[in-house]
């Protein structure tokens, strides 16, 4: 097999770039060469040997794209390995092991049969180093054809131009000057037809390729009946017949079963080639709670009391400091639980808040989220407003009573002052030796004590002073 080196170049250890790393289509042929012995390899050894065949340095293998933690070659190698496995070129016989698949072995076998240095009828012997075959002195082809050496060199050049690209043998370049190009194409068509016959969907295409290769075989026999000019004519004939028969059988079987049998016609090793699937652990479900509130003056966090009993009888009593709007997960087994908020954590300013007690049953079969709603306590707010109004009225009544008492005290003091003044005036009149008479605020008469005119006002004075002020004696009481 020949490796393509068109899309990448060998880099040195100092400066490695993306272009120094081989592409996926360049990695596939080297990977198939590593497994061509047929024995199983570990995945690590498979990647390491492939890198060696590609001639990569340690710096190239360790090169990573900016922002990535994995090597670029390892990423491309994994993609190439996945595509080879999907195409049936490699298979996984056990965990962590890889080997050449049935289609890979068939492709490798067909390539070996196309090489003239391994064709027994050509009388060639193969050196151990894999060099070009040399004609044997005892070969009957040499006795019949003097220029067998040149013919062998031409055949070697033609077959050596094939390569594996993505697990499919590429067609060699056709030169019009070469007389044996038809024979090489016949062998390649037969091998490709046999490979396509196993796909089910393209089985008719495989049968058609086999039929074309048989046509080349018959044409060559008619043109040269005495000697065969085809490369590996027996292999071409066998592969062509097998591809035609198998392709027709698979196509007819798929049509009869309505297309359901198409996938069953894949190689039996396909079940082994599948990646081992890990057993998924049973999904664990959780019990969550969240505290919600639409009030502007709600506290930033509250204390949630979780209590209940698990299905195994274990009692649960927990306290959690929960922020408003944030969901919390509890490590609780299935059971019945209740959620309530500590009232002391709801006291915020003038607004009274409350949260109803929430009961829930958690069966563990699905996730459960308990929502605790904080709202304004309207009843408590009304009761507090009524209490404040009663206290206000009581304070007003006490203030009015205090004001009335003060007014009464003032009036009593004024009456006492008036009595004191009257007594003082009477005492002064007695001291001056005159009798006491009484004046009114509006009248012009002075009166004797007990006169009916003194009902509204009664101002004591002496007779001499009253007469001096122009008052005359009352005609009724005659003072």
From TrEMBL:
Gene3D superfamilies: DNA Methylphosphotriester Repair Domain. The keyword Transmembrane helix applies. Residues 260-274, 400-413 have a biased composition (Low complexity). Residues 386-397 have a biased composition (Basic and acidic residues). The chain crosses the membrane at residues 184-217, 237-260. Residues 1-22, 95-175, 260-283, 385-413, 447-479 are annotated as: Disordered. Signal peptide: none annotated. This is Restriction system protein Mrr-like N-terminal domain-containing protein. Residues 30-107 form the Restriction system protein Mrr-like N-terminal domain. The keyword Membrane applies. Keywords: Membrane, Transmembrane, Transmembrane helix.
């Amino acid at each position: 097999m020949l490796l393509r080196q068109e899309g990448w170049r060998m880099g040195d250890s100092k400066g490695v770039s993306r272009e120094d790393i081989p592409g996926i289509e360049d990695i596939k042929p080297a990977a198939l060469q590593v497994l061509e012995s047929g024995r199983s390899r570990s995945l690590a050894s498979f990647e390491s040997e492939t890198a060696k065949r590609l001639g990569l340095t340690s710096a190239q293998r360790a090169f990573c794209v900016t922002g990535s933690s994995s090597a670029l070659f390892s990423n491309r190698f994994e993609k190439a390995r996945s595509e080879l496995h999907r195409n049936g070129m490699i298979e996984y016989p056990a965990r962590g092991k890889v080997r050449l698949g049935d289609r890979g072995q068939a492709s490798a076998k067909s390539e070996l049969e196309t090489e003239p240095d391994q064709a027994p009828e050509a009388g060639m012997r193969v050196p151990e180093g894999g060099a070009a075959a040399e004609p044997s002195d005892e070969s009957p082809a040499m006795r019949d054809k003097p220029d067998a050496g040149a013919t062998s060199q031409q055949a070697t050049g033609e077959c050596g131009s094939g390569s594996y690209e993505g697990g499919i043998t590429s067609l060699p370049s056709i030169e019009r000057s070469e007389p044996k190009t038809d024979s090489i194409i016949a062998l390649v068509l037969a091998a490709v037809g046999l490979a396509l016959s196993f796909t089910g969907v393209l089985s008719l295409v495989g049968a058609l390729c086999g039929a074309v290769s048989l046509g080349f075989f018959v044409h060559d026999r008619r043109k040269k009946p005495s000697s065969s000019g085809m490369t590996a004519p027996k292999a071409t004939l066998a592969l062509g017949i097998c591809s035609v028969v198998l392709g027709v059988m698979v196509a007819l079987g798929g049509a009869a079963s309505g297309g359901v049998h198409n996938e069953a016609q894949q190689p039996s090793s396909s079940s082994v080639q599948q990646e081992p699937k890990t057993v998924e652990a049973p999904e664990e479900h959780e019990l969550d709670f969240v505290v919600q509130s639409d009030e502007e003056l709600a506290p930033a966090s509250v204390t949630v009391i979780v209590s209940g009993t698990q299905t195994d009888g274990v009692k649960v009593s927990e306290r959690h400091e929960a922020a408003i709007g944030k969901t919390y997960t509890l490590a609780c087994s299935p059971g019945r639980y209740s959620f309530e908020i500590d009232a002391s954590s709801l006291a915020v300013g003038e607004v009274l808040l409350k949260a109803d007690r929430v009961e829930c049953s958690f069966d563990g079969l699905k996730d459960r989220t308990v929502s605790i709603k904080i709202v304004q306590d309207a009843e408590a707010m009304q009761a507090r407003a009524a209490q404040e109004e009663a206290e206000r009225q009581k304070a007003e009544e006490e203030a009015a009573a205090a004001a009335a008492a003060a007014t009464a005290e003032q009036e009593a003091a004024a009456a006492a002052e008036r009595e004191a003044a009257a007594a003082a005036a009477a005492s002064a009149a007695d001291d001056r030796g005159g009798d006491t008479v009484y004046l009114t605020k509006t009248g012009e008469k002075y009166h004797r004590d007990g006169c009916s005119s003194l009902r509204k006002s009664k101002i004591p004075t002496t007779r001499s002073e009253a007469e001096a002020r122009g008052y005359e004696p009352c005609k009724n009481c005659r003072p």
